[in-house]
Amino acid sequence: MNGPAMNEQANELARRLSAETGGEVLFDAAARGRYATDASIYQIMPVGVFVPTSSADVATAIAVARSTGTPVLARGGGSSQCGQTTGAALVIDTSKHLRRVLRVDADAAIAEVEPGIVLDELNAQLRPHGLWFPVDVSTSAQATLGGMAGNNSCGSRSIAYGNMVHNVLGIAAWLGDGSEVSFGPVDRLGARERSIAEMVRGLALAHRDEIDAHWPKVLRRVGGYNLDIFHPQSERPYTNDGSVNLAHLLVGSEGTLAFTRSLRLKLAPLPRARVLGVVNFPTFHAAMDAAQHIVKLGPSAVELVDRTMIELSRANPAFRPTIEAALVGAPDAILLVEFSGDDRADLLRRLRALVELMGELRLPDSVVEMTADAPQKALWDVRKAGLNIMMSLKGDGKPVSFIEDCAVPLEHLAEYTAALTEVFRKHGSRGTWYAHASVGTLHVRPILDMRRDGAQKMRAIAEEAAVLVRKFKGAYSGEHGDGLCRGEWITWQFGPRLNDAFRAIKQHLDPGNVLNPGRIVDPPQMDDARLFRFAPGYKTIPLTPVFDWSAWNVQNDPATETTTPPGSGGDGTGGFAKAVEMCNNNGHCRKFDAGTMCPSFRVTRDEQHLTRGRANTLRLALSGQLGAEALTGDAVRDALDLCVGCKGCRRDCPTGVDMAKMKLEVLAQRRRIHGRGSFGDALIARLPDYARLASSVPWLMNLRDRVPGLARLSEKLSGLSARRSLPRWRRDTFARRAPSLGLASRESALSAAKSAVLFVDTFNGTFESENAVAALRVLQAAGYTVHAAGANDADGQGALCCGRTYLAAGRADEAKAKAGQLLAALLPFVQRGIAIVGLEPSCLLTLRDEMLAMGLGADAALLAEHALLFEEFLAREAHCGRFAPALKPATRPMRVHGHCHQKAFGAVQPVLEVLRLIPGAEVSLIESSCCGMAGSFGYEASHHAISMQMAELGLLPAVRAAPDALIVADGTSCRHQIADGAGREALHVARVLADHLLSPAS
Length: 1002
Ligand SMILES: Cc1cc2nc3c(=O)[nH]c(=O)nc-3n(C[C@H](O)[C@H](O)[C@H](O)COP(=O)(O)OP(=O)(O)OC[C@H]3O[C@@H](n4cnc5c(N)ncnc54)[C@H](O)[C@@H]3O)c2cc1C
Ligand code: SF4
Ligand code: SF4
Fold this sequence. Notes:
alpha/beta, six-stranded antiparallel sheet, five-stranded antiparallel sheet, 43 helices, 27 strands, binds flavin-adenine dinucleotide, binds iron/sulfur cluster
């Protein structure tokens, strides 16, 4: 279809969807671009995106799409690795609204669910019944049941529970012609379904010899259609009683045969206990060889961690103790062997059997036994983190997933991995091996540069891997599906006659070729560069970035993974584009469990308001795919609008996508193009400049919240919500109180034996000076000579400030000037090793983060090294015996809310540590994402509602649930949000400690 005809078709489709459904109709270029990729190397622009609110919407959308000649592509989390979730179609995203558990029959251990529900959400709802759905994919926090069925997904414990196909009991779906079908056991089918079953049975019978000859016999085979349901070839039967279930034909069909409306699932009892044996091997080969013997002991998982991963984990101070506790000497590989069940004594017996087995295999004393839950969980977390570090390789060469889940029989695993390692070496790359040794599916990703010679190498490696898979009678597609990168290998795997049989199935169920065309049947070539996200010739717009992104502007060596020096990567955007391109679309940011990332998605469930969606929008803008000026245009502005700059992604994203900093870059670029911001922006940005003057007339400044109607008027002028009270101005600022506080001069602090500089930010200094005073008292009581800098201008430094309020308004130049002044004032102290101690996480941590990207040189790095939050400083000093204050016992339990930036920098633990210095203190952490206030975000009228929703996700309910507890929150905006939303006062940790001092300093 040519361009204008395509547009006409899309317009008609969009018009009718808007008129005939209640769903969201997203047809603009940026929205389509956000759905053009999955976690593969491919990118295909969809015709449009539809987010249905009900099953009826889906039915209508399929009908409308068919009548306009548009294909339909079902989508869940979009975390597929092979390109099966990309296509020039109407993409229908079920993950936002179609996510109900429809029924749980706990006695029969069966659940019925809508396709968009995420596995972790389902399992959370099943937990009270003592049940779970045990196909525990690594992406359990984002994979939907519809997508898992689409891919025939497999979990780490598949050796115990099987793949999706072994755990799906029934599927209700729409066919491409819009008719509804209900697939289940063949002896209970309706007329239409029975005729489909008969057709498939006929094909299966006619191809019985071919199936016997060509079908891989391993458990992990997910390629092609499951034509073997009538004559199962899997190591594990598809049903308990050997009967045939027609729903299994749809499992693994990648949305090409039917659109799932609901699934009936087989549940399993939650095991009451787990024990882990970590087996240490002197060689990788020995580990691979041992797997076949270990599985005979009946483990629920056998997972590999190779030497590279071990070393990566060891290099990380946070993980070193955990990984080292699992090691015996310096192994080349370890296998994590898990036994799970209800009878703990039996599990311990099996663990003993593992130890004995290793003795028999001449590896005595090689097993570290972990029987407690905590170390086991810590070790599983380390395994995941190791993979994340590997994925964060900077430069254009990336670990590419295309042969990463070939499965071979266990007896050949050692030989297969050795031979494939040799193949990588031949092509100038190498692979890091990990994952499912129990079922012969080891993940490995050679590093390829798709913008240069990656496609050629990919084909060469794929062909050589295929020879090995055939030699060892394995499955080429063993976990992640066929999609675009393995579609062409289906004929190779099954032979032309079975491929024709697959085509006949497709033709029978979807004669109009409406559903995800070109996947499984008639797929394109895997190396068709027109389908690549980064094809040869990929270009970005020229851009002079405001911040220093040179750390990303590098290239890497695929064999050694070493990178070239910062700034040498040839990126015309100075590294900004390459930082954005670090997002590989794995979808990890679509999570709702622990951690911060991503509060705006947690509230909206919109791809647009997700870290991944934002990174994709930026990537498209930076590569000119949204038009020449897109970076400073509306699509990018809208995608970043609800990003609260919490830095959750900086820490939680496996590849370290730092959207908070990217937003600052875009804001600064926008200001360059569009000039002055709004009055409200200026009001916030320039607060540090006018705070001193304004605080001298508090009665005037506070009128807005006192005189009826003024707040509403000011909302019109400033954009600040009338529903918010603003911080209260007062005369007793820290600067005015300073003369009576016993502060040390610069000179005395510089010469004292035990000194610290208290960095008093504008917020604590102006609106809550009691916090700064409390911090001072604690430090003085512990014998520190304290000099104050910041909102204190007692010794003529003026109001020093980190520049954060300017950054948030895109005023990068003013922010840099402020940061420069601060650096000049603090440099003499840090040059003498004196700590700069701050109270407000977002201000103090600016010294450790944004200031390093402002071109301030090595001095800024020195300052960053010495910039510590109050609690970090005290925890450090307590560890080395320099801080041991006399404290009164606690009278109330304490619940701590961590500021997002504290979490991003791993600085929450010190809050707990120092509070626990108080005798009898019962301290616990509130499990929360962002409070929703996030600087000025929550004050803005346009964001008030979303801000409150963010707070209601976890923080406010937790505060309300602890009426007797002392609420501790170090963030100024967090305290305001708690006061506004729960009517409770929260205290800075400094005040809590000061209140417990036995003999306060003067
Ligand atoms: C880091 C990482 C780790 C992974 N680990 C694993 C792992 O341990 N095990 C594993 O098996 N996979 C793994 N995967 C692959 C992927 O996460 C899984 O296959 C997952 O189950 C896909 O779920 P999804 O909701 O993202 O599906 P999507 O990618 O959205 O869709 C998958 C397929 O199902 C189809 N589909 C979706 N919804 C429907 C519907 N309603 N009706 C019909 N068809 C539908 C789609 O068209 C597509 O073809 C991993 C991926 C990544 C990035
Ligand atoms: S932003 Fe990070 S977590 Fe989200 S998809 Fe991209 S790489 Fe994954
Ligand atoms: S900074 Fe926070 S809100 Fe913004 S993308 Fe990252 S996690 Fe989401």
